[in-house]
Structures are given as structure tokens and as C-alpha cells.
Automatic annotation (TrEMBL), chain A:
One Pfam family linked to the record: AASDHPPT_N
Domain 4'-phosphopantetheinyl transferase: 144-228
GO molecular function, one term: holo-[acyl-carrier-protein] synthase activity
Record-annotated 4'-phosphopantetheinyl transferase N-terminal domain positions: 48-136
Stated name of the protein: holo-[acyl-carrier-protein] synthase
Keyword Acetylation: no
UniProtKB/TrEMBL annotation, chain B:
GO molecular function: acyl carrier activity
PROSITE patterns (alphabetical): CARRIER (PS50075), PHOSPHOPANTETHEINE (PS00012)
Name recorded for this polypeptide: Acyl carrier protein
Taxonomic path: Eukaryota, Viridiplantae, Streptophyta, Embryophyta, Tracheophyta
Species this chain originates from: Canna indica (Indian-shot)
Similarity field: Belongs to the acyl carrier protein (ACP) family.
Length: 314, 137
């Protein structure tokens, strides 16, 4: 796709109604689609004006109440990303502006599917996460999903072990303690943090509904011969989760993946396992990733440097 | 002096009423306090200074909370943060929030339960919770 000058397109957008988005084929049951925007790449302020028009009055108010241009931008782009992404998966029959959202009793955002004339709509699940430099949205069909992203170069955590002792499980504290190099310890901390956040967001019960202390996330080598690399005979690295109160019970109904995104972020994804899929297919996630500037440019970056598997992906 | 003494007695006899008065002046912070400071009799000192501490302490707590929040979120010194500022509007993500809570626990020597932490929306909420936990100590 030819890269367009964003200011040229922005002027065209103002002159006419917003162009329709290219529809996207639905993800299969164990597939996750991830869309992201890089706020710093938007140079034309007039594009933001157009984007504001897609939001609901409530969302506009929320954006304007944020302190500072950067936070306003990220709040705006979060809503734009959710609305435009969902629209793509309805074959663009539902416009970005038309979606309505509500929060479940724990505060997790959900789509309100109104009685419509378009027939059967896919059971889309979504989750958003953003930092000041990236906004991401994960989509599945049917499977509850949680995602969390963090900047690799995030400002340092004041005292990682203190925080871990307070909020993480004992096994995780032990794991973090095993790293002597503070830089590596920080990286491992961020990996655990994003994975734990993604799980809690997938569960949808809020921070106090699934306290971080009650479960352990750990990295392990798969002993499954089918997942063993031919060359190295080492099993695939994968992510397991177990409850602290009953370590023998490994929670097998959730799948995790951890990737490095855009060279700058860790992105953790957690989805509920598809019970009906064949056993081998249940092990690893399939992920497709697009970088987007809605209404301007979409780029599939799945097989590029922009997405690096750390673990969990097939 | 006699009338002053009478004022003193009635003053300490009805502390609740005086508290109400003090709260109304909270916005301007110093008006009533500086007046009271001029009373020098010993018996007078305990009551007004207690009220002085209560309200000055509240302002001091808020100031300390704002300082910790600015540090954690790497905001400039002159960033306009007030009691009404919502954490989410300041760009605090979940990790920031956890670190801020830990910073507050350390600074004020308190322990914040998860459920209480969840109910904090504004900076003033945090300051109020701290005040409550400090009083309970």
C-alpha cells in the first residue's frame, strides 16, 4: 500500500465524509488480532479533529478532561482505535461512531449490541491498553481477552523487590530475586507485570477481584515432544499460571503470549482456551498484528521486526 | 483579661463549635489562626493550636501527596495538580498507581488495603484516606 501524506489525506477527510475502513476477515477461534497506533507518528493536528467526531459525547468529555496534550491524544486515540477496529470486523456494516459501550459490574468495558438490521453479528471480544507512546487493541471472536503493554524503557520502578514482595506471589519474588543485574531484573519484572495485568483484564473481575498475590505466572520449557524444536531439543518456552493456594492446580483454561512490539514495548496477551480445539492447537496462540493510522493507512506487520515472539506464539 | 478568660473557657468548653468555625476558614487557611496566635495565655494555647494542627496538617498532607504524585509521574514542579485532580486524568497507569500507593505508605508509615486503594479517584481521596489511617494509628 502506498504510504500517503497524512496531511494531504487529512485535508480530504475534512472536505468530505470519513472514508470507509477496509473490512477485516474475522480471527479464528484461537487467533488474536492486535491493532496498534503510534501517536508520535501523527503530524497533522487536523486529523485529531476528524477523530473527535467519531467519539460519543461522554468520550469527548473524558478526552478533554485529561491533563496535558499527550494524555488527551492517547485517550482520543484509544477510543478511535477501539471503534474503528471493531467496525472493520462487522464488515463495516456498523460505523465506528455507532458502537455503544458499557462497563460490566467490575468495570470491564463491553460492547452493547443493539437490535440491528444486519443479521447475525460476530461475538467480538476486545481489550485495550496504552502507554504514552503506543495504543493497542486486541480482538478475538468468542474468547475473553486481556492485553497489557508497557514501554521497555519505562521510567525505573523505585524498588522492584519491595513492590514484588507487596504485590506478587512468593514464587515470583524468588524468580525476580534470582537476577543480579538490575536492568535484567527490571525487564523480567515488566514481563511478569504485563502478563499478570493481561490475565486480570481477561478475567474481567478487576484488580481486587483477582489479586496479583493469589496467582503465580512462570516461564517453563514444554516437555511436550510435539513442541520441541528439532535442532536444539529444547522445549518451547511457554507461560504457565498456577494459584498460590494450590500450586498443583495449573490453570489450564488460559493461554498467554508475550511479544516485543514495535521494538519499544512488551505486549502480553491472555485469552481463554478453546476447549473444543485439538490438544496440540490449544497450546500456542496465533497472532496477527497491524499497525494503523485509521482512515489513512494500515500495515500488516505480523512477519516483520515489529513483532518479536518472546513466548507463547505458534 | 477577664473577658478574654471567659472567651477562653467558653472556647474550650465548646470545642465542637470551634471546629466548625475552623473548617469554614479552611479555604483561606490562615485567617483565624493568626488571630488566635496572638492569645498568649497557657490554657488558650492547647485548643487553638490543636485546630491549627488539624487544618494545617490536612493542607500539609495534600501537599505531600501532590509532591509524591508529581515525582512518580515525572511531572514538572509547576504542574497544576489539585485535590480534585483525578489520577487517571494525570496519565497514571496501573503500575504508576501501585507505586504511588507504596510511596504514600512509606512517606506516612501506613498500610493501605486493596479495597481502599480501589476507591481512590482523586488526589484529595488519597489525602483523606491517609488522614483517616493516620488517625487510626
Amino acid at each position: 500500500m502506498l504510504p500517503l501524506q497524512s496531511n494531504l489525506v487529512a485535508r480530504r477527510l475534512i472536505a468530505s465524509a470519513l472514508p470507509s475502513l477496509p473490512p477485516a476477515p474475522l480471527p479464528s477461534r484461537r487467533e488474536v488480532h492486535l491493532w496498534y497506533i503510534v501517536p508520535n507518528e501523527i503530524k497533522d493536528a487536523s486529523l485529531f479533529q476528524e477523530y473527535m467526531e467519531i467519539l460519543s459525547p461522554c468520550e469527548k468529555e473524558h478526552v478533554l478532561s485529561m491533563k496535558g496534550e499527550l494524555h488527551k491524544k492517547c485517550a482520543l486515540l484509544s477510543r478511535v482505535l477501539v471503534r474503528t477496529t471493531l467496525s472493520r470486523y462487522t464488515d463495516c456494516k456498523i460505523s465506528p461512531r455507532s458502537f455503544k459501550f458499557m462497563k460490566n459490574r467490575f468495570g470491564k468495558p463491553e460492547i452493547v449490541w443493539e437490535h440491528n438490521k444486519f443479521g447475525l453479528l460476530p461475538s467480538l471480544q476486545f481489550n485495550i491498553s496504552h502507554t504514552s507512546s503506543l495504543v493497542a487493541c486486541g480482538i478475538t471472536v468468542d474468547a475473553p481477552i486481556g492485553i497489557d503493554i508497557e514501554e521497555k524503557q519505562r521510567r525505573p520502578v523505585t524498588n522492584i523487590l519491595s513492590l514484588a514482595r507487596r504485590y506478587f506471589s512468593p514464587n515470583e519474588v524468588q524468580y525476580l530475586n534470582s537476577f543480579v543485574d538490575p536492568e535484567i531484573q527490571k525487564i523480567e519484572f515488566l514481563k511478569l507485570w504485563t502478563l499478570k495485568e493481561a490475565y486480570v483484564k481477561a478475567l474481567g473481575k478487576g484488580f481486587s477481584g483477582s489479586p496479583f498475590k493469589d496467582f503465580t505466572i512462570r516461564f517453563e520449557r514444554s516437555k511436550d515432544l510435539l513442541l520441541t524444536s528439532e535442532k536444539s531439543k529444547i522445549g518451547e518456552l511457554r507461560i504457565a499460571i498456577e494459584t498460590v493456594s494450590d500450586p498443583e492446580s495449573v490453570a489450564t483454561n488460559w493461554r498467554f503470549a508475550l511479544v516485543e512490539l514495535h521494538g519499544s514495548h512488551f505486549a502480553a496477551i491472555c485469552i481463554e482456551r478453546d476447549e473444543e480445539a485439538p490438544a496440540i492447537e490449544q497450546e500456542l496462540l496465533k497472532l496477527k498484528v497491524w499497525k494503523t493510522l485509521p482512515f489513512v493507512e494500515d500495515e500488516c506487520v505480523s512477519d516483520t521486526d515489529a513483532v518479536t515472539n518472546i513466548c507463547g506464539l505458534s | 483579661m477577664a473577658s478574654l478568660a471567659r472567651t477562653t473557657i467558653s472556647f474550650s468548653a465548646r470545642p465542637a463549635q470551634s471546629l466548625k468555625v475552623t473548617k469554614e476558614f479552611f479555604g483561606s487557611k490562615t485567617v483565624s489562626f493568626s488571630t488566635r496566635k496572638s492569645f498568649s495565655a497557657g490554657r488558650l494555647r492547647s485548643d487553638p493550636s490543636r485546630f491549627q494542627i488539624n487544618c494545617a496538617a490536612k493542607a500539609e498532607t495534600l501537599e505531600k501527596v501532590v509532591k509524591i504524585v508529581k515525582e512518580q509521574l515525572a511531572l514538572p514542579e509547576d504542574a497544576a495538580i489539585t485535590g480534585e485532580s483525578k489520577f487517571v486524568d494525570l496519565g497514571a497507569d496501573s503500575l504508576d498507581t501501585v507505586e504511588i500507593v507504596m510511596g504514600l505508605e512509606e512517606a506516612f508509615c501506613i498500610s493501605v488495603e486493596e479495597e481502599n486503594a480501589q476507591s481512590i479517584v482523586t488526589v484529595q481521596d488519597a489525602a483523606d484516606l491517609i488522614e483517616k489511617l493516620c488517625e487510626e494509628k
